[in-house]
């Protein structure tokens, strides 16, 4: 059973950066397809980025305009999401998700079988 656990959230001021971590376990890491989503109160869940871990192929939402970057530590089975130039509208719960496989509709939440509990990011102006 795949498990993913997020960490790294916090409260920062506008313009700051954060690095979120997603620790995966329970499956061969390089055979996972993993994504990051976020959800703010009263809003729909938003797909941010995804990666085919074994191929190191990444996908990003156009709306991010290059502010967020994925990278991974394959030896430690950790996926990172670096958040740069944070804005108050980035305030949300950030979730890591995983699926067994090499790819698919990465922007769809129902594509992923396994979800973490989330890590909260608060950005003040």
Describe the fold and architecture.
The structure is a single chain. This protein is an all-beta fold and 125 residues long. The chain has no helices and eleven strands. It is globular.
- Which segments are poorly predicted (pLDDT under 50) over 5 or more consecutive residues? none
Helix content: under 10%
**Backbone CA Rg:** 13 Å
Output the number of helix runs.
Answer: 0
Q: Report the sheet-strand fraction.
A: over 45%
Instruction: Please outline the major beta sheet.
Output: 7 strands, mixed
The count of β-strands is 11
Q: Report the average pLDDT across residues.
A: 96
Helix and strand composition category: mainly beta
Question: What's the overall geometry?
Answer: globular
- Straight-line distance between termini: 40 Å
Map the helices and strands.
Elements (H helix, E strand, L loop, with lengths): L2 E5 L2 E4 L4 E8 L6 E8 L6 E7 L4 E4 L7 E6 L4 E6 L8 E9 L13 E2 L3 E6 L1
Parallel strand pairs: 2-11
Antiparallel strand pairs: 1-3, 3-8, 4-5, 4-9, 5-6, 7-8, 9-10, 9-11
What key attributes describe this structure?
mainly beta, globular, 11 strands, four-stranded antiparallel sheet, seven-stranded mixed sheet, 125 residues
Summed up, what is this model?
The chain has 125 residues and is mainly β. Helix content is 0%, strand content 52%. The strands form two sheets. Strands 2, 4, 5, 6, 9, 10 and 11 form a seven-stranded mixed β-sheet that branches.
